[in-house]
Amino acid sequence: MTKLILSNFQAPGDLIMLTAAVRDLHLLYPGRFLTDIRSSCPDIWENNPFLYALDEQDPEVANLVCEYPLIHQSNQLPYHFIHGFIHFLNEKLDLRIMPTAFKGDIHLSDMERSWMPQVQEHTGDDRPYWLIVSGGKFDFTAKWWAPERYQAVVNHFKDKVLFVQVGDPNHNHPSLDNVLDLRGQTDFRQLIRLVYHSAGVLTPVSVLMHLAAAVPSKPGMPPLRPCVVVAGGREGTHWEAYPNHQFIHTIGALPCCATGGCWKSRVLPLGDGDEKDQPENLCSRPVGFLPACLDMISAADVIRRIEIYYEGGILCY
Questions:
Q1: How is residue 176 annotated by DSSP?
Q2: 0.85 surpassed by pTM
Q3: How would you label 200-233 residue by residue, b for 16+ Cβ within 10 Å and e otherwise?
Q4: Segment 249-266, tens digit of pLDDT
């Protein structure tokens, strides 16, 4: 039996894709590997049945730093992000892993599922709610949509949908009105449980869209969690989107994303010395603080995508 320690210290969204690769490795090669993880977010791996405690000093243990170079062909080849680490492991280990599910692999314990939802602690009842993210990490401003447009969406659904705002306190998450504000009040396991109890998710391209797909659905809720993603033209649709998500993109509508995602990091330079301030990493068509691809997406566009889930009957007000 091969002993493997897999390591990756990228953002949580990347790690959720690695959970899928670990799952599929074990499902397609049962009993052949013992795997352990070293990562930047251990909470993602709690309750994972495919992990086994290994010591990196054990001479029988192989240490593998995991990457996904397949992303560099994402505008040319029909692969999803979920294939990234799988392709890497196939190359390194001479395997033929294939995805067994179109989502990451997040596990909740029976105890976690039984705890009172955090939103209920604030509202006093177990009403359905949508999670909303109004910004993102400072190093990727090209993913941010206008906060006033998020506010317009929230206002449209006032008295119909409760929006719960979440976000890392170290990132940019502009305050919204008429929401339950839980920004900076959750650790990652609490965020996972918020997703578990949610009716839907509204987000830019972020870890929350991957959690929306990866976290199991609560009994009585749709088997595939509704999610609206304000994406623009930065990342290719087939690389990022999940089948049931409303992935609002502008790929093919602008010269800068005519053939796929532009993968630019920032709209304007921040002056922090990061390489993302280099001209080749800046949006080529800024409209104020927004990239043109996101400026083209209106609040009405997002409202319509949320309403689709209710008109179709998968959700009820």
A1: -
A2: yes
A3: bbbbbbbbbbbbbbbbbebeebeebbbbbbbbbb
A4: 999 999 999 999 999 999
Single out the residue of 107, 153, 104 nearest to residue 130, CA to CA: 153
Tell me the pLDDT band of 139, cut-offs 50, 70 and 90.
confident
- Fill in the amino acid letter for 164: V
- For 73-136, the DSSP string reads GTTTS---GGGHHHHHHHHHHT-----SSSS------HHHHHSPPHHHHHHSS---EEEE---B
Averaged pLDDT of the chain: 96
E strand or H helix at 276: none
Q: How far is residue 219 from each of residues 77, 122, 190, 197, measured CA to CA in Å?
A: 37, 22, 18, 9
CB 41 within 8 A of CB 70: no
Rg (CA), the chain: 20
Q: CA-CA distance, 253 to 263, in Å (whole number)?
A: 15
Tell me 10's DSSP state: S
pLDDT score at 138: 87
Distance of CA 50 to the CA centre of its chain: 22
At 83, list the tokens. Answer: 């294939």
pLDDT above 90: residue 297? yes
Measuring CA to CA, which residue among 270, 262, 265 is closest to residue 282?
A: 265
Q: Rounded mean pLDDT of 2-23?
A: 97
